[in-house]
Amino acid sequence: MSLNGGDATPPMDAILIVSFGGPEGMEDVIPFLENVLRGKNVPRERLLEVAHHYELFGGVSPINDQNRALIAALRSELDAAGIDLPIYWGNRNWFPTIPEALRQMRDDGIRHALAYFTSAYSSYSGCRQYRENIAAAQAEVEGAPMVSVLRKFYNHPGFVETNAEHVRAAYRQIPAERRNAAPLIFTAHSIPQSMAVNSLYVAQLRETCQLVADAVDKPDRQLVYQSRSGPPSQPWLEPDILDTLRSLRESGVEDVVVMPIGFISDHMEVLYDLDTEARQLCAEIGLNMVRAAAAGTHPRFVRMIRELIVERMNPSQMRPFLGTRGPSHDVCPVNCCPPPMRPAAAMKATTTGNVTS
Q: Which of 57, 122, 252, 317 sits at a 20 to 30 Å CA gap from 334?
């Protein structure tokens, strides 16, 4: 898939890691959040509230070091497989930015990069917006390389196996006599329903949860959501993780395993929303919460990225998947994952029958 057109398609000669970005010190926090919220009708009070989350960690988002670790692990994986492709890194909201990455690639003579998004699922913010970010950067950087995108990997065996192994490790932290009674709670980032209804986000999440639960033989599982940021008047995906934890304790549950299936690394929304806020609630209500690790740099997960790269460079290569949905597409349809409608527009579309699923 070329994001900047052209008749000829040069061979892929680089890898581009595309991610969200995050501050690396207290002086970065407000400018970073202003980048994230630019063009959105978010009260200043909410920005300052989120800024406080970063203050608890010295203003440093873990996502940057996690991406550096992933790049280092992928470099070793590619080298071991004899794949001599340079790896670049660009972020949506903070340095190194996507335009900086494309400019460096151009200067290095790169003509066609293969992009890996740090998001396993299809949604506007997790896929299409990154493609728009790349297209905008290409328009800004004269002579920027072409960019193709790896397929979504929510049902790839490597992603499922990695998460299943982390779930098993979490259950081993619960006393043996209580493990079978402990439910498995999967969490993902909540998004506006107007975004969810026009994407495969929920369907893909449910498929991954089913695959991981089956792999660990845990039928007692549930998908819930976290990190909601919209106004109360705007419908977002539910139920919320905190409400779910309260309900479980009220029903007599003593232990619970929480798996952040919607994330690929233990970044800020995992560290704050789960390891800080949810853990504090569990301490208050007497619920033993064990949080499973995200995929991170698990060797099977890193090998999965290498497999995705190889299959895209060699069209005859097998495209492994688990479940019933098949491998995701390489080239997104024109109307794939449209941006969410504003609340007023969403209401109008609902009343006139224009909302599609």
A: 317
